[in-house]
Write a structure and sequence with these properties.
This protein has 260 residues and is of the alpha/beta class. It contains twelve helices and twelve strands. It folds into two domains: 108 residues, Tetrapyrrole methylase, N-terminal domain (Cobalt-precorrin-4 Transmethylase, domain 1, 3-Layer(aba) Sandwich), CATH 3.40.1010; 143 residues, Methyltransferase, Cobalt-precorrin-4 Transmethylase, Domain 2 (2-Layer Sandwich). 37% of the residues lie in helices and 19% in strands. The radius of gyration is 19 Å and the shape is elongated. It starts with a strand and ends with a helix.
Length: 260
């Protein structure tokens, strides 16, 4: 048996009760933290809290050489952990299919997602989000500024009145986690500096930070430790407008421009 468990968004306690109980019964536990991480807990803290040993896999060890995971699942009950939800945004369908091809039963135990948190914390209605996108570090995509594909996604969503969730690049092997001010600076310099955006920082923590302002203003802010997201709103329902102003300190004039 191979069970995929999402750890939730912040620390060793963010896992669901169901996930915790299954984790206690596992014969082998694997994890990856190259696509995301728990900002409020180290691997050592996870191991100590749940009284387990975790084999942390890098990208190559998960995607190119998954045999140790599959062998453990064939011989007993293996668990594979990720931050957030194991099959949303960070998808490990390939690993699940490999298990299926070997006749290994699989199961998914979901965790809270960044998408859900972004909607909940900003007050933007979840069914009014369009396609999500990722803003990479310039050195990561081999070009300058912002990829056209990324801004085209935002613009296509805005034409339909939809919000865009922008994931910020993570290069765990370098210890690089893009912050909201860096993301805002890239978009302000290479796209539309007057656009209203919302920084969502440390979602799932006891003290998340949510700040809405025009991109060129967000470049001047300090947002603290990662992980961060950006949301670029489309058109706003009046309740969404009030939420951004009241809960995220959005400038009223910027929010009013998006009212429908």
């Amino acid at each position: 048996m191979l069970t995929f468990i999402g750890l939730g968004l912040y620390d060793e306690r963010s896992i669901t009760v169901e996930g915790r109980d299954i984790l206690q019964e596992a014969d082998a536990v694997f994890a990856e933290f190259y696509t995301s991480k728990l900002a409020g807990a180290t691997v050592d803290e996870l191991e100590a809290y749940h009284d387990i040993d975790i084999d942390v896999r890098d990208r190559e060890g998960t995607e190119q050489h998954p045999e140790p995971i599959l062998d453990a699942a064939e011989d007993g009950h293996a668990v594979f952990l990720t931050a957030g939800d194991t099959m949303i945004s960070t998808t490990h369908v390939d690993l699940r299919l490999r298990a299926h091809d070997r006749g290994i039963d699989t199961r998914v135990v979901h965790g809270t997602t960044a998408e859900a948190a972004a909607s909940s914390l900003t007050g933007l209605q979840n069914y009014r989000f369009g396609k999500a996108t990722t803003l990479p570090f310039p050195y990561a995509h081999g070009g300058e500024g912002v990829p056209d594909s990324m801004t085209e996604t935002i613009e296509a969503n805005r034409e339909r009145g939809l919000h865009t969730l922008v994931f910020l690049d993570i290069k765990a092997e370098k210890g690089d986690y893009m912050t909201a001010d860096v993301a805002a600076d890239l978009l302000a310099e290479h796209w539309e500096p007057e656009t209203l955006a919302v920084a969502v920082c440390r979602a799932g923590s006891p003290e998340p930070l949510v700040v809405a302002d025009r991109l060129d203003a967000l470049t001047q802010r300090e947002f603290g430790d990662p992980l961060h997201l950006l949301v670029v709103p489309g058109s706003l329902h009046y309740l969404e407008r009030d939420a951004l102003v009241g809960l995220a300190d959005a400038p009223e004039d910027a929010a009013d421009e998006l009212l429908v």
